[in-house]
Amino acid sequence: MTALLTTAAGPGASLVQTVDWLAIAPATLPAVVAVVVLIADLFLDRRGKPVLGWISIAGLAASLALLLPLRSGDRSTFCLADAPTACSYTADQFTLVIQFLVLAGALLTALLSVTGAREGSLPAGEFWFLLLSSAAGAALLPASRDLATLIVALEVASLPAFALVGLRRGDRLSSEAALKFFLSSVTATAVSLLGVSFVYAATGTLHLTQVADRLEEVPAQLDTLAMAGVALTLIGFAFKTAAVPFHFWVPDTYVGAPLPIAGYLSVVGKAVGFTGLILVTVIAFPSYSDIWGPALAVLAALTMTIGNAAALRQAPDRAHSAVRLLAWSSVGQAGYLLVPIAAAAYSERDAIGSTVAYALMYAVVNLGAFAVAALVARTAPANRISDYRGLYARRPLTALALAFFLLCLAGLPPGIIGLFAKVVVFQSAVDAGLGWLAVVMAVNVVVALYYYLQWTAVLFRAPKAAEEAAAATTAPAATATVTPTAAPARIPVPISVAIAVTGVVAVVLSGAPEAVLRYAATSLFPQ
């Protein structure tokens, strides 16, 4: 399924490209549905607004289905006529896996958001348009094979996210979070653009494969410019991955954003940053691996250490925010995700498969944890960790699901998939000769056990009302008062589905971890 695109390339010359519509369909369909939703919003009254959410969910589900016919082999489009291997869009195995992750993450976010949009806490038309637009950019990014498309995809994914974070009108915390997110992302984009311009000046091309070839033969007078371009490009993407010291926006942004959007940023937003980092390091800058390899190894160590140390402060008995704990936890998890990318500089780039395998596990269980947090927030808007006390007594299945998600993040049985994912990341560091980084990771995994297990234990403690009732029965009759416990409110169906889906997938992956871990042992890029 192709169409011809002809543009003028100069006097007497033309550039003819073939457009593979099937290859670009998974990234294009969410954008098309976003426009449809925005237009439909103009003609629907308040009672008809909920249909926009279901249209969005159907569009994201259809985008996921369009990945199936692309499994048969690599497909490229928007290729140069004089260099057929230099393409701007490639749907290879790496692309399809990341597109599945981001589209599935967006679909679960949409499910969690249906109830909020229906109840009026979020403006329906604007919300669904922004979410679909961001998902379109996130799906485009892993297929991008030139620096210009990469930056455009990054911004298409990021710009709508600013508005999504601050979409709760009149909420000061939400507005502050959006402002911090906006300023940090704009800074990251400016730094990335400066780096890309330096790389282009040194190489004369934007296509990743051509950049890699020409960086190996950069003239001596341009070597400093090329090195500066590589460094600045990596710094820009480090902002997007929330790597230390570029992580300062994460806690306040997650706490201030609507909970489904916080989950979206922790999974899809992080996937976007790591995907861009992988593409520029492994494909475009392999000749400078002696620069970015050690730098990413140090960033990985700092990120996991500071993230876990900050998460330790969110102790349950301090009544801190559960979302803030998840935010700091996500910073720590970002450190683990950086390890295989750093290892790719020392061993072969096959180590990238470990990052992909870990990202898939993390996406499932972290979105599941945010789904439970969204449910608890319906009755406890502050969403403190103490609000989860006695959750097992009120909602046994929900508590068991959250406990399983936390054990997966901690890497403890029965969360086998979390344990195995950490093992493959650890092994990538050892195989690359980064023994010191493997030791730092092992220490951090042990440290993280404390706050994950503390939160898990809170779920199974007796509810405060039950303890107060027990104390009242032993007090004198004249002073004994018992407050009846209200029955739990009904769980909205979309939130129930999101928790159930993530829970079932996490259990299945723990029973058959090879479904994800096989990516750690295979090459995701053509050699």
TrEMBL record:
The keyword Membrane applies. It is found in: Cell membrane; Endomembrane system; Membrane. It catalyses: a quinone + NADH + 5 H(+)(in) = a quinol + NAD(+) + 4 H(+)(out). Keywords: Cell membrane, Membrane, NAD, Quinone, Translocase, Transmembrane, Transmembrane helix, Transport. The keyword Transit peptide does not apply. InterPro entries: NADH-Q_OxRdtase_suN/2, ND/Mrp_TM. Its main location: membrane. It is a multi-pass membrane protein. It holds the Pfam family Proton_antipo_M. The chain crosses the membrane at residues 24-44, 51-70, 94-115, 127-144, 150-167, 179-201, 225-249, 261-285, 291-313, 325-346, 358-377, 397-421, 433-453. Its EC number is 7.1.1.-. Residues 144-445 form the NADH:quinone oxidoreductase/Mrp antiporter transmembrane domain. NDH-1 shuttles electrons from NADH, via FMN and iron-sulfur (Fe-S) centers, to quinones in the respiratory chain. The immediate electron acceptor for the enzyme in this species is believed to be a menaquinone. Couples the redox reaction to proton translocation (for every two electrons transferred, four hydrogen ions are translocated across the cytoplasmic membrane), and thus conserves the redox energy in a proton gradient. Belongs to the complex I subunit 2 family. NDH-1 is composed of 14 different subunits. Subunits NuoA, H, J, K, L, M, N constitute the membrane sector of the complex. PANTHER family: NADH DEHYDROGENASE. This is NADH-quinone oxidoreductase subunit N. It comes from Streptomyces bambusae.
